[in-house]
Amino acid sequence: TIRDLIRFLRNDSNTLLARKICGERNIIENDLIPIIKSDNLKDKMFDIALRLLANLTQPAIVSLQGKQPEDREEWQTFWTLEENLRRAKIAFADVKFFSVLKQKLVKYFNETEWEDRFEEDRLVMERIIVLLRYIFSISPTDRDGKRTTTESSSHDRLISAFLESGIDEVLIYIASQSKERDFHLSILVIFALIVKEHVSPKAAFICSLALLFDFTHSI
Asked: What's the CA gap between 82 and 105, in Å, rounded?
């Protein structure tokens, strides 16, 4: 079950064996994204699936506690985790998936009054924002390096699904609300990640600094 997987990851070995196995079996694409997209999914089940999805989507460097690999074994672990994330990346280019996340954000930020909000719901929103940040931080896939000039990259396909779902408008709304300032930096980082592949080297460097600051404070 999903709860068992979460427990499995919580008690993972130093070599991150549990995380590697989840990645090799592509649980993200084969199980978790379909669950998130399921019709009439109970809120509790959504939250559990979201927690596991965010956990498995976190950058390899975060899985390594923010420390650069120091020996051959650690580097092998790092590259295995990176490859697993790249393999799962294109599965996120799904309008319905982003639409489900959008609906959750709208219900909380647009439709629920401040005094009627619950802490557990806020935690779900935080996980959604973190997940979005992690999704757009996944490196280009192997296929990206082989595509023709007329083919869209995996990153462009992510952006297309993201924009088509309308979730970008919700994030912009949240960022415009002073009372939601706790979410502002993370939303800025999401958009920085989105445009990073399409800006000048100087702008990309600024984006990288913002990402480094945000990831460092999230570990």
From this structure: 28
